[in-house]
Amino acid sequence: MASLPSVLVGNNTLKLQPDFKKHLPNTSNLSIHQKGNYNNKTSTTQLVESHESVSLDFREALSVIQDGTSGFESNVYIPILQECVKNRSVSETQMIHAHIIKTGTFEDLYLMTFVVNVYGKCGEMDFARKLLDQLPKKNVVTWTSLMSGYIQSLEPIVAVRVFSEMLEDGTYPTNFTLGVVLHACTLLYSVKLGEQIHGFIVKYQVEDDTSIGNALSCLYSKCGSLDSAVKAFSRTGDKNVISWTTAISACGDNGDSVKGLSLFTEMLYDGVEPNEYTFTSVMSLCCVMQALGVGSQVHSLSIKLGYQYNLPVTNSIMYLYLKCGHIDEAKKLFEGMETISLVTWNAMIAGHAQMMEQAEDSLSAHSSGMEALNIFKRLNRSNMKPDLFTFSSVLTVCSALVALEQGEQLHAQTIKTGYLSDVVVGTALVNMYNKCGSIEKACKAFIEMSIRTMISWTSMITAFSQHGHSQQALQLFEDMRLAGVRPNKITFVAVLSACSHAGMVDEGLAYFKMMKHEYKIKPVTDHYACLIDMYVRLGCRSHGKLELGFYAAEQLLNLNPKDCETYVLLLNMYLNAGRYQDVSRVRKRMKEEKVGKLKDWSWISIRDKVHSFKPDDRLCPPGGEVDLLLGDLLEKARNIGYEPHGSLEVTDEEEEDKTTSKIIHHSEKLAVAYGLLNSPNAVPIRVIKSISMCRDCHSFIKLISVLTERDIIIRDSKRLHKFVNGQCSCGDFGSLM
DNA sequence: CTAGGGTTAG
Question: Which family does it belong to (predicted)?
Answer without folding.
Answer: Belongs to the PPR family. PCMP-H subfamily.
